[in-house]
């Protein structure tokens, strides 16, 4: 029996029987006397269990007479064994690396503290994981926690939002009324897919560009997820557009070993050529993000089609070459 299961059983026995002798607990738990003593001590010191020894009855019981001072005793609604707790703490550490903006940290930290306490190593469990698991994240944009919480609240309560939004592409700030549909975490940043009542269409808003937000007492308009995927998720990357086309990219045989293991888009198509090169076909509606990803492969990638994308890549490559030649 796992230790956390024993804690639960001790709690249940004392709550049901009101009194339990040391031998009663030993028989129920099937552990050694030393282990039982450690469990009782741990429940008192770490979980604040008001377990006392009744000398007259020569049994353990919960102290119901004296008001408890400090942290109150309460068993969590969920119990985990040691391996599950380690897995949860590791997931929390990974989440911290993904959520580098610190938006979810304040909400997750109480759970982490409880998990560390259950492990019996509150001083070093999480720190040990930090030492053994290294996460390298790309630069992420900072955003306001309050805005994230209010947007999340409106999203889950299905309420409209009034936001003031700064669009970097046009360098303009506008007031919008939107119906939030879903939050998207993409490349270290958060985005909100929403129906924009101001523009009468689906839009994707970068949360770090939301300057103010207010939850309105209006029901949000619901858009089917299939429609969201068709409009906002059909092309490559975060940029949307109705004119979805296919790009055909050919990677060198040396680079093919890496690219063939990558997933650029859920609907991508690919195959190997006889010479070992790798051909990748992906849908896109806006060339901006795709252009950046193509350029990072340099001479190891060729844009086969469409012609206008091939031209844009060539122009950008020449521009980079001219810049570095002058500097």
In short:
This protein is an alpha+beta fold and 327 residues long. 41% of the residues lie in helices and 24% in strands.
Describe this protein with a few key phrases:
11 helices, 11 strands, alpha+beta, elongated, 41% helix, four-stranded antiparallel β-sheet, 24% strand, SH3 type barrels, single chain, Arc Repressor Mutant, subunit A, 327 residues, five-stranded antiparallel β-sheet
Care to describe what's here?
This protein has helices at 3-17, 22-29, 33-45, 82-98, 105-119, 125-132, 145-157, 225-232, 253-259, 287-295, 307-326; strands at 51-54, 59-62, 159-167, 172-186, 189-196, 201-206, 210-219, 245-251, 269-272, 278-284, 301-305. It has 327 residues and is of the alpha+beta class. The strands form three sheets. It has a five-stranded antiparallel sheet, sandwiched between helices. A four-stranded antiparallel sheet has the order 9-10-8-11. A two-stranded antiparallel ribbon has the order 1-2. Strand 9 and strand 10 (278-284) form a beta hairpin. Helix 4 (82-98) packs across helix 6 (125-132) and helix 10 (287-295) packs across helix 11 (307-326). The longest helix has 20 residues, at 307-326. It starts with a helix and ends with a helix. The model has no long low-confidence stretch (mean pLDDT 83).
């Amino acid at each position: 029996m796992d230790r956390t299961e024993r804690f639960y059983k001790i709690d249940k026995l004392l709550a049901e029987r009101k009194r339990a002798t040391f031998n009663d607990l030993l028989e129920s738990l099937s552990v050694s006397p030393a282990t039982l003593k450690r469990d009782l001590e741990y429940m008192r010191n770490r979980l604040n269990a008001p377990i006392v020894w009744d000398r007259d009855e020569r049994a353990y019981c919960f102290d119901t007479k004296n008001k408890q001072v400090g942290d109150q005793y309460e068993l969590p609604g969920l119990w985990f064994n040691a391996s599950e707790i380690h897995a949860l703490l590791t997931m929390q550490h990974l989440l911290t690396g993904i959520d580098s903006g610190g938006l979810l940290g304040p909400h997750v930290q109480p759970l982490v503290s409880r998990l560390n306490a259950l492990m019996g190593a509150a001083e070093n469990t999480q720190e040990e994981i930090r030492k053994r698991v290294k996460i390298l994240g790309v630069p992420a944009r900072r955003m306001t926690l309050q805005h994230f919480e209010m947007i999340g609240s409106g999203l889950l309560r299905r309420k409209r939002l009034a936001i003031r939004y700064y669009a970097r592409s046009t360098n303009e700030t506008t007031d919008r009324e939107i119906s939030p549909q879903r939050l998207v975490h993409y490349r270290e940043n958060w985005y909100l897919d929403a129906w924009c009542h101001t523009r009468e269409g689906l839009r994707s808003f970068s949360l770090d560009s939301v300057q103010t937000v207010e939850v309105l007492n209006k029901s949000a308009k619901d858009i089917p997820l299939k429609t969201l995927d068709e409009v906002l998720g059909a092309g490559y990357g975060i940029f949307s557009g109705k004119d979805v086309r296919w790009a055909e990219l050919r990677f060198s045989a040396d680079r093919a070993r890496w690219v063939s293991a990558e997933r650029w888009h859920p609907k991508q198509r690919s195959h190997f050529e006889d010479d070992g090169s790798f051909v990748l076909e992906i849908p896109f509606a806006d060339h901006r993000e795709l252009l950046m990803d193509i350029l990072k492969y340099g001479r190891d990638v060729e844009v086969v089609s469409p012609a206008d994308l091939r031209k844009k890549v060539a122009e950008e490559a020449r521009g980079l070459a001219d810049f570095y030649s002058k500097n």
